[in-house]
Write a structure and sequence with these properties.
Helix 5 crosses helix 6. The chain is elongated. The protein is of the alpha/beta class. The longest helix has 16 residues. Helix content is 28%, strand content 22%. The strands form two sheets. Strands 1, 10, 11, 12, 13, 14, 15 and 16 form an eight-stranded mixed β-sheet that branches. Strands 2-3-4-5-6-7-8-9 form an eight-stranded parallel β-barrel, surrounded by four helices. The chain folds into two domains: 134 residues, Lyase, Ornithine Decarboxylase, Chain A, domain 1, CATH 2.40.37; 235 residues, TIM Barrel, CATH 3.20.20.10.
């Protein structure tokens, strides 16, 4: 695929990666996510080596590129699907229905029934009505109850939208059984981009207490879904994936004991570092002669793939053809006619003072939660283009 970028300068590249080699040889006329599926495979093996007997259930929402799903099926991965469409995608590429969980706690009854017809047997819930829907639409299904995580040290803590507290969770186990379902365990999520394995500790302490309370109450728990949280590199030091995963598993085993089945749901930690976005500077300006910060406008913004700059939680790494020149603080923004389309303002980015319109900008480690967050046609801009090499 060849795409044009008028006037864009070539970037100095790292010759050791296929991504850099491809981008150096290609021109682009729109922001484009470039993915290397071989890097996904490398990360899968690295995480699996640390997770041991835990099954990887790839969080499809992180990046549903068909080439990624197909490769992971061949590697023996399992999948965490949030919708009928994600389940269909996994099955299309040969995933075994037993290896796909319907992990969204808010599901349409007709989608539950459809999934059940396809052979999906494992569903999540965190409320009575959700269990009732599953009991009607997928009788005798296995279910796990999602626990709310009150303490998180993640860069992107999850809200109280999902999960329930200890008393509710234990009550739901009994209620599921009364409905003819098979309640086999709990799930949780410590928060996205939990940079250090040790940061799991406080959450696990509280969650393990619920696990043991439920077992003492007579519930036969055989499944623990530890969710995601596995980090990607965005400039701050993180542990290597195998060491990180092994350290998490060590904490799980020390707190929960021997669990027959453990699920892990990496999304970001599996695919983020397998992709980069090629973008272009559209404008560099100052609002007045007194303005201490330049404004740098890219051809990609919060509505076209960089939604995770919300609250400046995820701070991407930018490379330009002028790296090495003197730098200064910049407020970064997207191209749309919406005042909310600002990427970094509270903590401006340091970029070369010589940066100008037409310069190419590489945004590193953007393989997760970019293309899936891209709007369809806001301001007429197309969704983020994706190329898989």
């Amino acid at each position: 695929m060849t795409v044009e970028t008028a006037g864009a300068q070539a970037l100095p590249t790292n010759p050791h990666t296929r991504l850099d080699a491809y981008c150096a040889a290609t021109t682009f006329d729109k922001p484009t996510l470039v993915l290397d599926v071989d890097l996904v495979e490398q990360q899968y093996h690295a995480l699996k080596a640390g997770l041991g007997h835990a099954d990887i259930h790839y969080a499809v929402k992180a990046n549903p590129a068909e080439e990624i799903i197909s490769r992971l099926v061949k590697l023996g991965s399992h999948f965490d699907a949030a919708s009928k469409a994600e389940i269909a995608l996994c099955l299309k590429h040969g995933a075994n229905p037993d290896d796909v969980s319907f992990g969204n706690t808010v599901k349409r009854s007709s989608d539950i029934a459809w999934a059940h017809e396809q052979g999906i047997t494992l569903f999540s819930a965190d409320a009575e009505q959700e269990l009732e829907k599953i009991a009607v639409s997928a009788p005798n299904a296995k279910v796990y109850i999602r626990l709310i995580v009150e303490v998180s040290q993640a860069d992107w803590p999850l809200s109280r939208k999902f999960g329930c507290d200890s008393a509710t969770a234990i009550r739901l186990l009994s209620y599921a059984k009364s409905l003819g379902l098979d309640p086999i365990g709990f799930s949780f999520h410590v928060g996205s981009q939990t940079r250090k394995a040790a940061m799991w500790g406080p959450s696990l302490d509280a969650l393990a207490e619920i696990w043991h309370t439920a077992k003492k109450a007579g519930h036969n728990l055989t499944l623990l879904n530890i969710g995601g949280g596995f980090p990607a590199f965005y400039g701050e030091t993180i542990e290597a994936p195998t060491e990180y995963a092994a350290a998490v598993m060590e904490q799980i085993i020390s707190r929960f004991g021997k669990v027959p089945r453990i699920m892990a749901e990496p999304g970001r930690g599996l695919v983020a570092e397998a992709g980069l976005i090629v973008s272009e500077v559209l404008l560099v300006s100052r609002k007045s002669d007194r303005d201490m910060h330049r404004w740098v406008y890219l051809d990609i913004g919060r509505f076209s793939g960089l939604a995770e700059t919300e609250g400046e939680a995820i701070r991407y790494q930018f490379e330009t053809p002028r790296d090495g020149d003197p730098v200064g603080p910049c407020i970064m923004a997207g191209p749309s006619c919406d005042s909310a389309d600002v990427l970094y303002e509270k903590r401006p980015m340091l970029l070369p003072i010589s940066l100008r319109a037409g310069d190419r900008v590489i945004i590193r480690n953007t393989g997760a939660y970019t293309s899936t967050y891209s709007s369809v046609c806001f301001n007429g801009f197309p969704p983020l283009a994706v190329v898989v090499i």
